[in-house]
Design a protein that fits this description.
The chain is α/β, with parallel strands linked by helices and 656 residues long. The protein has 3 domains: 88 residues, Ferric Hydroxamate Uptake Protein, Chain A, domain 1 (Beta Complex); 195 residues, von Willebrand factor, type A domain (Rossmann fold); 181 residues, von Willebrand factor, type A domain (Rossmann fold). Helices cover 27% and strands 17% of the residues. Its main location: secreted.
């Protein structure tokens, strides 16, 4: 009996040791998995719609071939969540048809979505939708972790049909181990059958239908379009007059009556950034007053794609964009978004915020249209805690019209604490009072709404907007050779003065410099020497005639080194060369260097100038950048033509 007992004890001990070893082995496996997590980018199919994915922001990989028109896309830049994610990425230009990684961010629903043709994809129009999304390059932001598995609202992952390894499942538990995590979390929707990629049902042709749901007809796939921007509802009990395979199912549409979608006030077409104070000193109550002020301005402006667009940057210690110009395309959605803004806290570093706006906010990716003036309205509680002068100067030089609203400014006793005296005066576009608003109390801020709206919409007075007349460094290269003569040289100087008069001249607008050449070269004055129109005109009058040979090639090299090397990076560089004869040296290589460095060269020849040489010197196309005048006395006739060509070229180029 004793032997049996010993045998049983040995068996128990042996079983215990086996289980213990199994547990240790399993724990080691788990440790390895914890130490070496497999970070993957989820892959989706072309037909996956953003609305089927619950995650608010995620990075995914699209396959090749999503340019196919069967993958419907609704909207432009901002897309309805009923759109194909990958199709929208191609339409927006983030991807091509070969696929790749993208970053998707959900945003608020819009009152309407306008279809357009872009990058080989025809997107469709759609009325109101409950949710939208925007697409950008699939680069992870620093400090942001994106999900390695997506959460879907359907009963089956769209990816599961092509890759069984990504199906949601759970292994049966093993003694001593932990159950494996689910790869994809599924949230059961109202309909439990049918994969997310199934074809949409067509409306029933039955006349006896009692459905009262809205049935908008997406447009863009046929030459004769039904404009949904003008169509609000379909008659109850009737089907769409023109059924289309891309129509939106009735169960996914809002049953509220559609409001007419405003395209915005065309008399106030501006791209506007509000730079709001979120510092701790402002307090919660005054921050709410500031948000109400923004909402009132948004309502008064009548936001829309044909009128003003508005984004918001909040600053404390550091600035952060709340939303950009293309996030909300109407006043109602914008007001809703403003209400959700939370206060950042920290210091009141307005200078840092202005730099952020200049470098990051007014870009094409953020909705900047280029054809609309850029306006930044900076709101400051009291005074900034950093300096604004240099940041504001760069903003002005970049074509941004800065307005300052100072609320409850420093009293006499408080001025000793102000970091930069007269900060508002140093920051605004012009110091004529038009760009500054001083508000005595936060409780009076609402009274400035109409005054501010009137000013920002007065585009004729937005003096810092980039134009062909205020955004260049212009270097005149003047032939002073013996063949010109003293009298004709004075005529050339008058031509230079007449051209200069047409430009807006200051240290932040157009700047003028001049070089005279014969065999040698001489810098008459540089871009930094004079910053008013009267000073420039007087400097031109004082230029003395030199006399000598004609080395035009050397003169171009000299101008590049002594003038344009000191040109500001955000200025257009224009060289206007005036000569009366053929050069003694080669002009081809110096001209090529000038063109390569981005210097737009105009060549003006008089009397004995060689036209073939003028065409070599001039920027392509030569017919727009080279001119020939038979006599010096006729130079004045070409002033309007030169100015016209400069402005035509400026207006044809993408800006900002």
């Amino acid at each position: 009996m004793g032997i049996v007992v010993l045998t049983m004890k040995a068996s128990v001990i042996e079983m215990f040791l086996v289980l213990l070893a199994t547990g240790i082995h399993s724990n080691k496996d788990m440790t390895k998995k914890i130490k070496r997590p497999k970070l993957t980018v989820p892959q989706i199919n072309c037909d996956v719609k953003a609305g089927k994915i619950i995650n608010p922001e995620f990075v995914v990989k699209c396959p090749a071939g999503c340019q196919d028109p069967k993958y419907h896309v609704y909207g432009t830049d901002i897309y309805a969540s009923y759109s194909s994610v990958c199709g929208a990425a191609i339409h927006s230009g983030v991807l091509d048809n070969s696929g790749g990684k993208i970053l998707v961010r959900k945003v608020a629903g819009q009152s309407g979505y306008k279809g357009s043709y872009s990058n080989g994809v025809q997107s469709l129009s759609l009325p109101r939708w409950r949710e939208s999304f925007i697409v950008s390059e699939g680069k992870s932001q620093k400090g942001v972790t994106y999900p390695s598995a997506l959460t879907y609202s359907s009963s089956k992952s769209p990816a599961a049909k092509t890759d069984e390894a990504t199906k949601a499942y759970q292994k049966p538990p093993v003694p001593g181990t932990t159950a494996q995590p689910v790869t994809l979390t599924q949230v059961t929707g109202a309909t439990a059958t049918g994969a997310a990629h199934a074809s949409l049902p067509k409306p029933s042709p039955s006349a006896g239908s009692t459905s009262s749901s809205l049935r908008p007809q997406p447009v863009g796939l046929r030459s004769r379009e039904l404009d949904l921007w003008a169509t609000s509802t379909y008659t109850s009990g009737q089907n769409s007059p023109r059924a289309d395979p891309g129509f939106v199912p009735k169960e996914e549409l809002s049953t509220q009556a559609l409001e007419p979608l405003s395209q915005g006030d065309p008399n106030c077409k501006i791209d506007l950034s509000f730079v709001i104070d979120g510092s701790s000193s402002i307090g919660k109550r005054r921050f709410r007053i500031q948000k109400q002020f923004l909402a009132d301005v948004a309502q008064a402006l009548d936001i829309g794609p044909a009128g003003p667009l508005m984004g918001i940057v909040q600053y404390g210690d550091n600035p952060s964009a709340q939303f950009n110009l293309r996030t909300h395309m109407n006043s109602r959605d914008l007001r809703t978004a403003i209400e959700k803004i939370t206060q950042r806290g920290g210091l009141s570093n307005a200078g840092r915020a202005i730099s952020f706006v200049t470098k990051n906010f007014f870009s094409k990716a953020n909705g900047n249209r280029g054809s609309a003036p850029n306006v930044a309205v900076v709101i400051v509680d009291g005074w900034p805690t950093d300096k604004v002068e240099e940041a504001s100067r760069f903003a002005r030089e970049s074509g941004i019209n800065i307005f300052f609203i100072t609320i409850e400014g420093a009293t006499e006793n408080e001025k000793q604490y102000v970091v930069e005296p007269n900060f508002s005066h140093k920051a605004v576009c012009r110091t004529n009072g038009f760009y500054s608003l001083n508000v005595q109390s936060w409780f009076s801020l609402h009274k400035t709404v109409q005054a501010l709206v009137k000013r920002v919409c007065d585009t004729d007075r937005l003096a810092c907007s980039k134009t062909c007349l205020n955004s260049a460094d212009i270097g005149f290269v003047i032939d002073g050779s013996s063949s010109v003569g003293t009298g004709n040289f004075r005529t050339v100087l008058q031509f230079v003065a007449n051209l200069s008069k047409e430009f807006e001249i200051s240290d932040i607008d157009t700047r003028i410099g001049a070089v005279q050449y014969t065999y040698e070269q001489r810098l008459e004055f540089g871009f930094d020497d004079y910053n008013t129109k009267s000073d420039i005109l007087n400097a031109i009058k004082r230029v003395g005639y030199w006399s000598g040979g004609t080395s035009t090639g050397a003169a171009i090299n000299y101008a590049l080194e002594q003038l344009f090397k000191k040109s500001k990076p955000n200025k257009r560089k224009l060289m206007i060369l005036i000569t009366d004869g053929r050069s003694y040296d080669d002009v081809r290589i110096p001209a090529m260097v000038a063109h390569h460095k981005g210097v737009i060269t105009y060549a003006i020849g008089v009397a004995w100038a060689a036209q073939d040489e003028l065409e070599v010197i001039a920027t392509h196309p030569a017919k727009d950048h080279s001119f020939f005048v038979d006599e010096f006395d006729n130079l004045y006739k070409f002033v309007p033509k030169v100015i016209q060509n400069i402005c035509t070229e400026f207006n044809s180029q993408p800006r900002n």
